[in-house]
């Protein structure tokens, strides 16, 4: 009886605690005329351990760029053709969103002709990319995919013919690669380009339904031309894939040209302002000169010269994949700004805590805060290298051929691994804001929708990870045969020496803060996993290779993931070395250390499985991660403020800079309320239900 009485008493106490008005409710729910958000954010900013303006200059690469971006945001906010004229972005219909996006593009092209300062031109594009993902993607399709294809695959003569029209949008381009039945498997594409010797033309044709070009941005309603990747058929023989410029629409009327059928994909999960579409070609004739012929050529006499390597056909995908780092910054910087500010403003708990002070909140958000800085630094390093390699395409074909394999392997691994992590951060931000992030008006749901295509645009990113793994297995074999390998895989040259140690020698947890130590640990993991998998595949032989690959597919993807994170950390360290003299360097280093611990923690199962770490090592890694997240939380607000994104760009009331979020949130929702009268469907369906007579009651005549 005493035990039962004690249990009942405990239950009553628990219920009483639930019903007791806690301090946070006493102060804020009942007497919420003094919101704490503005004071909380002011205190967070006052306690910053670094100068926010200095960090912004690092992000934007100079004070002049910071000033240019401020001016660009001001220009957008004041220009009625660039900003939202009325209402809220997430209330636009698909047609309204597309008209607005094309209006914004037309206006920026117009402004580009009058703005003489190249910094401001670039800043305007960057500001608009943050302001509208649909705008960003339309510009990306035209400038990165379509134009880059011409730069990488077109001859000097072809570039002279087309480039001015492309730069000035007299030609609006799209990029026709993926098909209804094929995405990342380019060798399986079905669209054909058949050479007609009699007319010196290529005939572009979609022979089957699954050959329909699918998900092609700007093909649905806008593009006048496309670069289409096709199987090249000459005298009945398939010579592999090549790129062809194909006109789609009459530039004067917008009508589809004979033999071209384009349609719209329809409603998507996001990016409604981008007209993704489909294309079918029915014996569309183009001149021989429309084949892009820097690497493969078709002479006027009808002689075909193939490219020196099939990998060149994929070269345009490399910068496209590298842009994942820049695109991820756009989405993550906004999402984390919203989630971190909300976490600092929202108070909940027995002691009225800021929810950002909870450990689970810190481990959810702080790695993401550090990660966007890593993306920013590595983005710069990657494109410096890619620009060097792309220049070789114009000046030194041999050097271009030597560099392309590693660039392709890195781009595949980075897009696969890093994009997967971005999606994790985005979802963590959504959950960290509770139910409020489910509202479109708080932007996070839309940003998640915008980013979704990145992990599936060419099929599941697992395909990219397998491309990276295949490159790793191949280059390891070359190194084992005595050939020197370079770039991201250069450690394979010392594979035997690396694997002489089967267990880590570290005892002091402070070793985990050393970039060199963490790199060595990840290098060991890559070398070990690659060597083991290569042995399995070699033993299987050619006859059973595909089966062996599939049986080890998960581990091959894990190899690619460890390799990608290892190289990502190396490039970040290389990138921040140039910032060593700046006051913000200690903070940049601290964020790199957090993400180094994150990478070890992410792959702890591998180290434990292989016996390289023991349980005590694993505990130390986990504890260090918790400590680092708690430490970085102190500067969370200044770190996201440094991205300098205005409220009108973020569009989320719960992410307002001043912290006074609730009046702004209510005002946003209230402004969307068009009427307080009962809607038509209420009278049609609800009214008969609520006025239905009860049993024995006469039917109401009202």
UniProtKB/TrEMBL annotation:
FAD binds at residues 178, 217. Residues 314-473 form the Acyl-CoA oxidase C-alpha1 domain. GO terms for cellular component: peroxisome. It catalyses: a 2,3-saturated acyl-CoA + O2 = a (2E)-enoyl-CoA + H2O2. One of its GO terms (biological process) is lipid homeostasis. Pathway: Lipid metabolism; peroxisomal fatty acid beta-oxidation. It holds the Pfam family Acyl-CoA_ox_N. Residues 51-172 form the Acyl-coenzyme A oxidase N-terminal domain. It is found in: Peroxisome. Keywords: FAD, Fatty acid metabolism, Flavoprotein, Lipid metabolism, Oxidoreductase, Peroxisome. Its main location: other. Residues 516-691 form the Acyl-CoA oxidase C-terminal domain. Belongs to the acyl-CoA oxidase family. This is Acyl-coenzyme A oxidase. It comes from Podila verticillata NRRL 6337.
